[in-house]
Amino acid sequence: MRKQLYTALLLAIATSTGIFAANPDGGISPEMLSRIKTAYADTPADRAARNAISTNDIDRLAINARYRSVKPDTHFSHKVPGKGITDQRSSGRCWLFTGLNVLRSQIMMQHDLDRLELSQNYNFFFDQLEKSNLFLQGMIDYSDRPIDDKMVDWLFRNPLSDGGQYTGLSENIMKYGIVPAEAMTETYSSNNTAKMRRILSTKLREYGLELRRMSENKATAQAMQQRKEEMLGQVYRILALTLGEPPVEFTWTRRDSGGNIVDTRTYSPLDFYREYAGNDLKGQYVMLMNDPTRPYHRLYEIDFDRHNYDGANWTYINLPMDEIKKMAIESIKDSTMMYFSCDVGKFLDRELGMLDTATMDYESLFGVDFPMDKADRIRTYASGSTHAMTLMAVDLDADGKPRKWMVENSWGNGANNGHLIITDRWMDEYMFRLVVNKKYVPAKTLRILDTKPTLLPAWDPMFAPEE
Description:
Distance between the termini: 40 Å
Radius of gyration: 26 Å
CATH architecture of the largest domain: Alpha-Beta Complex
Helix content: 40-55%
Shape: globular
Number of helices: 18
CATH superfamily of the largest domain: Cysteine proteinases
Number of domains: 3
Largest sheet: 12 strands, mixed
């Protein structure tokens, strides 16, 4: 390390005194390459690091042994009881699992049920159908623009996704209802969505070109809508073959918390939702964001960031972390779980089930600093909201300040029985979105919802759907 610092100092002196200068053409010349190579001195320490890093998983090598030497504290001062761990398998449906798990917790508590898992596959079917319609109608709406137009290009790059966000979830449930898991079980393609998504995306891109050609040939709006409906019929067919066809009605036996049968009835999915949930998933909740690249206490809307064409874009209030945490604490104290999303891949120790900025020591492993703050990571696409989970616990110190948090994950059983423990310092750096009931939100914050939102483009860094 001393030799590297000494070499860097000599390079700085040489550059400042004009002994050599950067290549004016911007390329890497042989002379520049020679200077660049001095960053790797091939010392015994460098060779040992190369031997280890080139043949092992980087995260395992970066694990902070000092951190690992202390057993994580699993005590939480305030915790909402969990209702069982789910598993999204190889799919990007975390947003759906999270939302349904929050709803499941409410239903079980309010109706004294012994067990309940809601069918993720049922709502996923309609999510994919709605997103297909969103893309196709977008192709029609922007058919008068050139194919290299920013919006048209974005649509072709993003015809379909299995990721999502809370607005799309709430509208899906309120439009199509919910069903118990046994009424529409998982299939291979619902658990492993990549191939189905690729097939549907290819078909949608083909259909998008066809709709653009119809527009170029002066087809009527009615003809284009009719053709879109035919296209959606083929999308429905692919979905039915891969996911199964959603039930129109089903029979379900209700059992109380003691396992005793209460009744057996036949429901439609919407009847079941109205009977056991019935709350306004849109009007009763507010979406919060921590985005330090933009002014706080403002309302923002992301264009085309929705699942349904006739639905609402993702609209959120941007707030400092301390204000978001206060609402989250109030919700947990009131035994209410929340939809929560973050950049889960950063500093994740899967074996401990921990998210903490101290779990990995990349600086020591590579001898390189990583100084970007949260705002810079967002601006450069180095960090963003990638995964949704269910926020369910907080550990407060004697002064009421949070030390750590706990989320119910959807990766099946693992460390901490399928839960992740999050330190408060990690929360500050990598938490992005939270959905809370309005009753936990201060009146002055709610008034921001009455202001006109700033519209952000579809390709904004905050668009990225949780997976």
